[in-house]
Each structure stands twice: as structure tokens, then as C-alpha cells.
Amino acid sequence: MLTLLKKIFTWWNQDTFGTRLKTIFFGKYVGTDEFGNKYYESKKGKRWVIYSGTIDASKIPVEWYSWIHFTPNKIEKKNKFEKYDWQKPHQENLTGTEAAYYPNKNKDGVKKKYSTWKE
User: Fold this and answer.
1) For the sheet containing 28-32, what is the strand order?
2) What is the per-residue pLDDT for 41?
3) What is the value of pTM for the model shown?
4) Checking phi first, is residue 104 left (phi over 0); if not, alpha (psi -120 to 50) or beta?
5) How many whole angstroms separate alpha carbon 82 and alpha carbon 118?
6) CB atoms inside a 10 Å sphere around CB 36
7) How far apart are CA 39 and CA 69, in angstroms?
8) 89, CA 20 to 30 Å: which among 3, 9, 23, 116?
9) DSSP 51-93
């Protein structure tokens, strides 16, 4: 019962009750990516994604991003999402976390290339 109420009233973490109903009645399942996100399409051509875990648009891999935005590419036409050897695995946006990229993060004693005028 608590999970049902949480599903109805919590819209910021996962799909809402309305999205779930729309998916059941009007959605045609298209596929799933390696992160567990599920992709759907309606008869009218509208496309949407139901995220696994918290909602974050940076969790969509490139091949599914192009599909959801109606961008034609060779991968979509083959209906095979093959990765090349030179492609890195997809990584969600890490801004604001401990794993975020900071230039010269681990270097101690790095001298700045500029100096402030208030020294």
C-alpha cells in the first residue's frame, strides 16, 4: 500500500502513476538499454523512456538518444546497437558528485598561470 501511494505522489524520482497508465494503454515496448531504461512508442509516433532508478536524462546512451529524438542513423536502421572498439562505455553526468572531473585535482603545488591583483 505504501509503495502504491509513493508511486502516485512521488513524481521526481521515477515515473508517475499517469505515465504508468499511459504506458500500459498506449505504449508499445521498443527495447531496453544496458542500464535498464525501457523505451516505448505510441501509435501516433510519440516516444518516451521509463528510467530505472532516479530520473536523469544523461542516463540515455547515444544510440537511444538518437532514437528518442527521431535522429536517423545507420545503427537504428539495422536495429542492432553495435559498439565500436574505440567507443567508451556510456557514463551518466557526474557533475556535483565526488567522481566529477576537476583539472589538476590530484596534483599538489600546482602554480596558477595567473596572479590576482590583490596580492
Assistant:
1) 28-32, 38-41, 47-50
2) 93
3) 0.60
4) left
5) 55
6) 11
7) 12
8) 23
9) -SSS--GGGS-HHHHHHHTT---HHHHHT--PPPTTPPPP---
Considering only 7-16, 31-40, 54-63, 110-119, which range has the smallest mean pLDDT? 7-16
> pLDDT class for 47, splitting at 50, 70, 90?
very high
Q: Measured between alpha carbons, how far is 64 from 66 in angstroms, rounded to an integer?
A: 5
Separation of alpha carbons 80 and 110, rounded Å: 47
Cell numbers 531496453 correspond to what residue?
Answer: 32
∠ CA 23-25-28, nearest 5°, is 60
Which pairs from 99-107 meet CB under 8 Å and 24+ separation?
Answer: none
Cα–Cα distance measured from residue 93 to residue 15, given in angstroms and rounded to the nearest whole number: 20
Which residue type sits at 61? P
In whole angstroms, what is the distance from residue 67 CA to residue 88 CA?
19
- Nearest CA to 34 out of 55, 59, 69 is that of 59
